[in-house]
Amino acid sequence: MSTPTTAAPGAPVVDFDLAQLRRDPYPAYAELRRTAPLAWVPSVGRHLLTRYGDIVHAEKLPEVFSSREQGSLLLRTVGPNLLREDGAEHRLLRAGAEPPTRPRQVRDLWADAFEKNAHDLLERIAGRGEADLVADFAEPLAAANLALVLGLRNATADDIAEWSRAMMAANGNYADDPDVWLRAERATDAIEEAVAEIAGAVRREPDGSVISSMVHADMALSAIQNNVKVVIGGGVNEPRDVFGVGAQALLNRPDVRDRVLADPSLWKRVFEETARWVSPIGMYPRQLVQDHEIAGVALPAGSRVALVIASGNRDESVFERADEFDIDRPHRPHLAFGGGPHFCMGAWVARHEVSGLAWPLVFSRLKGLRLDDGTEDHMEGWVFRGLTSLHVTWQAA
Amino acid sequence: MPIVIFQLPDGTERKVTAESGTALMQAAVSNGVDGIVAECGGNASCATCHVYVDEQHTALVGPPNGVEEEMLDFTAAERRATSRLSCQVRLSDALDGLVVHVPEEQV
């Protein structure tokens, strides 16, 4: 099977300025959904699939839409890992890694420590009266919680955050910048070393963590190391970004904020709506292992397709007024966690740490919390998307 | 080829014919039964294929398995004694005529 580097016959070709896509991809997605729901985009080197129904179709056919993408930047960065496997091989890796991220484990094993992490971070900034909630709170919180769930007690939250940034830069290194590869290599070397040390320790003394679970599922050290790299790569920015986007949405809508504060059961709706509205992961790649027709185009085996879940989550045929943040919209499943066997392993961790702990704590602890009028915060990214900062003020008394 | 009847929250019902050996969730999804979301595709990771087994059939269908048991605490609609994740219910000729109720919400 070869990997075509051009459009499949009959596929419309649409090109985008990637800088524009990073600033705001949603108008481009709306146009694609209307006119070319499967389109070859040369600057991305893939067919973008943008309608909800087509994406769900592809997710439900992993035997056609393979995760084993040839030439994947993720593979180059971290080596073979569970995100880029299919079928039985994927099931084994997932079964080894998943148990500590299941909801009951989150509640019983991690919730108390997550809460302490959030309190500690908040106490550090509470007296200041102003902060960038992305850099000063959400990112270090996500990193500290991740270290805990993974079992990396030999790494600091700063280590985890830097490793994550370095690998994420490499995953998007389409420009082949050697400095980016070098920085990622330093990060992955450090992760391998940290994981090897912990793997030895938990083999003797299991601790309920993801590394411990994989060790006792008899996975090879290299597989454990690579899976930890993937989890660190995604596990910081996703909860961080959903925290930031949702917090800003509520600060922009005091009416909604007041309702949620009066009825904390609504935090769950805020979470699911935020993940739909601005999905932290905007797209992920698949490669066809056989000929398959989708969105009216007969794609040959080997075709590369990007499932643009950020676009599916704004599909007007499924979500009315899809561009609006609306926690009261009819419950329809969003695509932010992906679907099928690769359904986000961190979904239950993220739900709890963000909507169960971080948002309620920040909104109750920081009195008079509001957006800082003097600064402008903006969202960035299309493969991954979130606020680059969230400047707020409150009464520091 | 067992027949399964899905009672939907709006009061209507869907009758589908399934292959023996397939999961109840698969029978729903393949036939486009509304309200069975099954985000994770049958891996008991997402709790979005929740059903209530009709009381006449609960004994026949049996109790939830270990992994499913804990996931049922986190369904969107309330858990009841008859709750199952439909991806963990294997259909057979013995379950011909099975009636299940689809809850109001899955997410």
Task: Give the CA-based shape of chain B.
Answer: globular
Biggest interface pair, residues each?
Answer: A-B, 21 and 19 residues
Strand order in the sheet with the most strands of chain A? 1-2-8-5-3
CATH fold assignment of chain A: Cytochrome p450
Indicate the proportion of strand residues of chain B. Answer: 15-25%
Shape of chain A: globular
Alpha carbon gap, first and last residue of chain A: 65 Å
Multimerization state: heterodimer
Q: Which fold does the CATH topology of chain B refer to?
A: Ubiquitin-like (UB roll)
Q: What is the mean predicted local confidence, pLDDT of chain A?
A: 95
Number of strands of chain B: 5
State the separation between the terminal residues of chain B, measured CA to CA. Answer: 31 Å
Helix-strand string of chain B: EEHEHHEE
Distinctive features:
heterodimer; A: alpha+beta; B: alpha+beta; Ubiquitin-like (UB roll); 5-stranded mixed β-sheet; 5 strands
Explained architecture:
The complex is a heterodimer of chains A (397) and B (107). Chain A has 397 residues and is α+β, with helices and mostly antiparallel strands. Chain A has a single domain (18-393), classed as Cytochrome P450 (Cytochrome p450, Orthogonal Bundle), CATH 1.10.630.10. Chain A has helices at residues 18-23, 26-35, 52-59, 73-78, 87-97, 103-126, 133-150, 157-171, 178-204, 210-216, 221-235, 237-252, 254-262, 267-277, 309-312, 347-365; strands at 38-41, 46-49, 65-66, 130-132, 284-288, 292-294, 297-299, 304-307, 370-371, 379-380, 386-387, 391-393. In chain A, the strands form four sheets. Chain A has a five-stranded mixed sheet, covered by helices on one side. In chain A, strands 4-12-9 form a three-stranded antiparallel sheet. In chain A, α9 (178-204) crosses α10, α9 (178-204) packs across α11 (221-235) and α14 packs across α16. By secondary structure, chain B is α+β, with helices and mostly antiparallel strands. Chain B has one domain: Roll (Ubiquitin-like (UB roll)). In chain B, 16% of the residues lie in helices and 20% in strands. Chain B has three helices and five strands; from the N terminus they run ββαβααββ. Chain B has helices spanning 24-30, 58-61, 66-71; strands at residues 3-7, 13-17, 50-53, 83-85, 98-101. A five-stranded mixed sheet of chain B has the order 2-1-5-3-4. Chain B is globular. The mean pLDDT of chain B is 95. The A-B interface holds A 59-60, 62, 94, 98, 102-104, 272, 331-334, 337, 339-341, 343, 345, 347-348 and B 29, 37, 39-41, 43, 45-48, 67, 70-71, 73-74, 76, 105-107.
